[in-house]
Amino acid sequence: MRRSDEELMLDFINGDEAAFESLYYKYEKPILNFINRMVMNSTEAETLCQETFFRVVRAKKSYEPTAPFKTWLYQIALNLCRDRMRRMKHRSHLSLDGQASLHTDENVSLGDTVSDPSTSIEKQMEKQQMLGFIKKAITSLSQDEHFVVTMKEYQGLILSEIAGIMDCPLGTVKSHCHRAHKKLAKMLAKYLVEQ
After folding, report:
1. Domain end position, chosen among 45, 68, 92
2. Using CA atoms, how far apart are residues 17 and 19, in angstroms rounded to an integer?
3. Which residues have C-beta within 8 Å of that of residue 129, sequence separation ≥ 6?
């Protein structure tokens, strides 16, 4: 019988180390992907991802399954990202290690795109340029809009899950999402028309 995330966490609290390993292997890549999209620095993202799971271990005694484990885990990661972004007020540094697609979780890095021999040099350059435009547009959003877009578009989370993670009303998340999509559409319109 398959255990839920909450059951695995409770088993971990009761000394089952394998239960934590199951949670770690299930969520390590999504959390790393999420953090990388927030901080746009793959090295720092790895550090923050490890810190997220370290905090899960440290907070295990205070864990209560009142909300889904996934929500709790993303809250920890989001708070670490917020702290990091407060420390690094200028987010002008863009990583070229991010994923190339806005609407998919495929692990296609810029390096994979550029090194694909089936893609012409011109197409590779267009993809690289568009990736840069998308990243720049997303990083120009307000912090909350950035969080919402990343969780919805890259992580595939639904708005009610995002509201739980951000600990705010669903209506607020919907507003952030609507404003972010309007801003992105406006910022990227001229680039999309040229394609």
Report:
1. 92
2. 5
3. none
Question: What token pair was written down for 119?
Answer: 């893609």
Domain match, 153 and 181 both: yes
Q: Spell out the alpha helix ranges (H) of 3-107.
A: 5-13, 17-39, 42-58, 69-87
What is the DSSP code (8-state) at residue 1? Answer: -
Instruction: Return the CATH number at 67.
Output: 1.10.1740.10
What's the pTM?
Answer: 0.74
pLDDT surpassing 90 at residue 192: no
**Which of 39, 58, 92 corresponds to the end of one domain?**
92
Give residue 48's Cα distance to chain centre.
12
**What domain count does the chain have?**
2
101 Cα distance to chain centroid: 13
**Alpha-carbon separation of residue 134 from 7, 20, 72, 93, 183 (angstroms):** 39, 36, 29, 14, 12
The predicted-structure confidence for 122-152, as pLDDT tens digits, reads as follows 777 777 777 777 788 888 888 899 999 989 9
Is there a single domain that holds both residue 19 and residue 98?
no
